[in-house]
Amino acid sequence: MTDSPETRFRTSQLEENDGPPVNPTDNRTMGEIIAARFSRRGFLKGSLAVSAIAATVSPLALVAADEARATEASAFKFDELEAGIDDKHHVAPGYDADVLLRWGDPLFADSPEFDPVKQSAETQARQFGYNNDYVGYIPIDDSAEHGLLVVNHEYTNPHLMFPGIVKIVEKDGKKAAEVAPLSKGQVDVEMAAHGGTIVEIRKEAGKWQVVRDGKLNRRITSNTEMALSGPVAGHDRVKTNADPSGTKVIGTLNNCAGGITPWGTYVMAEENIHGYFSGELPEGHKETANYKRLGIPEGAYEWGAHYDRFNLAKEPNEPNRFGWIVEVDVNDPNSVPRKRTAMGRFKHEGAESIVAKDGRVVFYLGDDERFDYVYKFVTKGTFNPNDRAANMNLLDDGTLHVAKFAEDGSVEWLPIVFGQGPLTAENGFAGQADVLIETRRAADLLGATKMDRPEDIQPNAGNGKVYVMLTNNSKRKADQVDAANPRAGNAFGHIIEIVEDGGDFAATKGNWEVLLKCGDPSVADVGATFSTATTANGWFGMPDNCAVDSAGRLWVATDGQGPKATGRTDGLWAVDTEGAARATSKLFFRVPIGAEMCGPLFAPDDQTAFVAVQHPGDGGEDWEAFGRPSYYEDLSTRWPDFKPDMPVRPSVVAITKQGGGKIGV
After folding, report:
1. How confident is the model at residue 41 (pLDDT cuts 50, 70, 90)?
2. Within 10 A of 20 (CB to CB), how many other CB atoms are there?
3. d(CA 546, CA 134)
4. How far apart are CA 573 and CA 586, in angstroms?
5. Distance, CA of 586 to CA of 533 (rounded, Å)
6. Rounded CA gap, 633 and 640, in Å?
7. DSSP state, 481?
8. Exposed, middle or buried: residue 466 (CB in 10 Å: 0-12, 13-18, 19+)?
9. Which of 162, 438, 477, 646 is most solvent-facing, going by the fewest CB within 10 Å?
10. Contacts for 297 with CB less than 8 Å, ≥ 6 apart
11. Is the separation of the CB atoms in 541 and 518 below 8 Å?
12. What's the rounded Cα separation, in Å, for the pair 17 and 662?
């Protein structure tokens, strides 16, 4: 983001990441590799086969047969929702979508009721936070209807949070909305609205309810004390005036997606940390290049004006204490969250895990920036299903790898280990701590493949595959691709499917395919590859978060669709990955104008889908039907749940089948 604090609007992560690329290497891009691979083996084999068939069968007959096979073989049985744009939630016929939690909802017996005019740091710390992204569920007593919901609160939109800070100004003869600078009190509310929520929920008479007096309920914020653990703990590069030990960090920032470990802890992924820091490093400071590789400082937030730890001139090492995976023991509401530095430092999208054949635990990690990388972390120790305590420090010791994709469809996982290959003192690394603090530079030197914004990465225990969401890359140049490449200026993203060698998720080699190139398949220049059974409602762009349900089916949520990009809002799509229906997609749920679709999460019995609706109404002025230049008006006619002049509220929605039963069956 480049706007000044006085005029900037914090919008979707798509726009936040649409600045200058920060990867300076000439490592090959995924587009170049896909182009080479398909030109070498896929094009010849596929085109000759299609030509031979088409010589004897009409093209229309081929399409009809393909559609029939795909429809019959689909793993999803629901009536598709119609795509579109308005200010409401919509779900497929036969399902209910109930708001479970909204920004400001009380979480404790003594929590104050939400009042946007009277928000304070103290009240916000006892209420559900802002922009809910990752959603996880941890059963209580192995129940699919009683458990802990864990939710990340990624970032804040002050123009939607604080009534009265938006004013209408004239610019070039047009009306525009401008945001006033925030007060210290408003910054304090922002800080309390970040972090995460742990809350007990229970299903009663088919509907989910929040248990406000749940003994494990907890808010984690930007002011929660945390510990640095693993190889970086205590290193000179993470010591500050406030923490000369280099082991204690205050708070967590920009938690995007995350995960639940096999031993039932909650992991939060710190992503776009660059926006929180302002000020300038002293001239010649040793962290200058390190921070430049992460886009630090960006200064989108005004926190540095009120707190020294966000001002580089006063605390030059503070950014090294963010950009990690944070693990939280939900069984103890007084536990100290731990930043697990062995898992690397970058703009983490998520941390989904699976137990490998030998008992080691594998985490797949995306670095959400154009031209950055796909990672996985493999623990050194093995998971003990009978001793939770024995697993509690597994994340402090293991090997981080970065992916290198080859033209022949193979992928190699390169270990990011000090002393191996170029990761030596000659290249500025004194030890493993330096390698992990500068994970991006280490991956650069290893020659990792530059990707199109890696987001969620989900392993599928059912079929042994791994799905990589690549949201988009508007900066890819035409000279990096050819006719067989997904796209130059890739606006709609694609999905990569990985099969690890021998079905072993801990393997260091595997194979990959493009599952989908996204976008409108009716526009030839887009080059989308949905099956012919995918309807006009079923295609999507900008894949972001995803989930694999207990039946092994893939569900994809999007971020960035809207009036300008696609003519439809973001939502949740069911995507077939096997058989004749492979690459067929169906729309299941869609969000209001301006919102991003996050989550999703399926309850263990697949009878509930939890989804997170971020920043509804943000950018809504782009929709002509809103007919307003300001974010504030009497919203009661468009948002029945809201009072006049109340901000639009991010929410977690519980989707259930009317009359009960599994989702999508």
Report:
1. very low
2. 8
3. 10
4. 5
5. 10
6. 13
7. -
8. buried
9. 477
10. 274, 277, 278, 279, 280, 291, 304, 312, 319
11. yes
12. 37
> Looking at residue 234, what is its pLDDT?
98
DSSP tag of 354: E
CA distance 152 to 612: 10
Say which amino acid occupies 3.
Answer: D
Mean pLDDT for 190-194 is: 98
Give the model's pLDDT for residue 487. 65
Give, in order, the Cα–Cα distances in Å from 504 to each of 355, 511, 546.
Answer: 9, 12, 21
Q: Residue 235, Cβ neighbours under 10 Å: how many?
A: 21
Could you tell me the two tokens for 224?
């929660």
Integer Cα distance of 591 and 620 in angstroms: 12
For 290, the 3-state DSSP assignment is helix
Between β-strands 352-355 and 360-366, what pairing exists: parallel, antiparallel or unpaired? antiparallel
> From the centroid of its chain, how far is CA 538?
22
* pLDDT at 640 exceeding the cut of 80: no
- Determine the straight-line distance between the first and last CA of the chain, rounded to whole angstroms: 43
Buried b (16+ CB within 10 A) or exposed e, 320-359: bbbbbbbbbbbeeeeeebbbbbbbbbbbbbbbbbbbbeee
- Single out the residue of 517, 580, 574 nearest to residue 549, CA to CA: 574
Per-residue pLDDT, averaged over 13-32, amounts to 64
Across 247-261, 476-490, 635-649, which has the greatest mean pLDDT? 247-261
H or E element at residue 32? helix 30-37
- At 348-392, the pLDDT tens digits run 999 999 999 999 999 999 999 999 999 999 999 999 999 999 999
Which single residue is written with the structure tokens 């395919």? 513
Q: CA-to-CA distance for 294 and 344, rounded, in angstroms? A: 13
